[in-house]
Amino acid sequence: MKKSKLIILYISLLAGLQFPDFDLHIFAFLGHRSILTHGIIIPFFLYRYLNKRKIVNDTLDYAYIGFLLGIAIHLCADLFPKAWIGFALIMFPPWIPMGAPFSIIWMLTNLILALWLAFRKFKIIDENKKTRNLVFYSIIIIGVIYMIIDSNFISKIILLLVTFPLIWIYGNRGFKFIKKEQKPVKIKKNKKKFFGGFWTYLIGTLIVIAVLLIVILYLISFISQ
User: Fold this and answer.
1) Which of 9, 40, 138, 150 makes the best surface tag, with the fewest CB within 10 Å?
2) Is the Cβ–Cβ distance between 80 and 44 less than 8 Å?
């Protein structure tokens, strides 16, 4: 990886860290913790739009990765408010609070998706495993530092140290699984199978991860009270 690309990734990561709080100032009309800023909706669809327009290049890829990782770290911190009321809740424009259960599920789901999309893209554009691992460790360090300067940082760090390595490992193994699935496979005629294969693996894994993380989140919240 070129140093210039690495710089772009880290600058974008810092931008992603701050992006969710844009609804406090620039996008104040959306309400704090807007569903649009506290998630991957904007960067995901913007990247897809640019990709369809064939504007995407390596620079934009690294910016996309860093931005998603920054959002993931921010969401990890936002999952531990002092209380699930008021500005701790996800807002649906204009200023409609969505409640604690929805807010937790929304942020946790977007945290997982942001990590999965970022790590998947990172593996595609950088084949150097050693470089990827070093970048991953640096992201963990940045995340821990970000959590320490905030309140209730122990619970946040625990969640970070659970989710980031888990999705990182899944992303790397998942791609090996995809490569195996790309080999020609004999399919019997008149028999369409939805279950089995990559999609069942993906959906099942995401469901299991989501359930485990929700349980872990509630346990950490209970212990930290």
Assistant:
1) 150
2) no
Instruction: Give bridge partners of residue 91 from the DSSP assignment.
Output: 34, 97
Tell me the two tokens of residue 55: 């504007």
Report the C-alpha gap between 168 and 3 in whole angstroms. Answer: 22
The answer to whether the CB of 175 falls within 8 A of the CB of 123 is: yes
| CB count in 10 Å sphere of residue 134 | 13
Return d(Cα 164, Cα 110) in angstroms, integer.
Answer: 13
Query: Which residue in this structure is represented by tokens 């995809």?
Result: 178
The C-alpha atoms of residue 20 and residue 100 are separated, in whole angstroms, by 18
Residue pair 47/56 in contact (Cβ under 8 Å)? The answer is yes
- The contacts found for 139-143 with CB under 8 angstroms, 24 or more apart, are 139/13, 139/69, 139/73, 139/164, 140/164, 140/165, 142/13, 142/73, 143/73, 143/76
Map tokens 């470089």 to a residue: 131
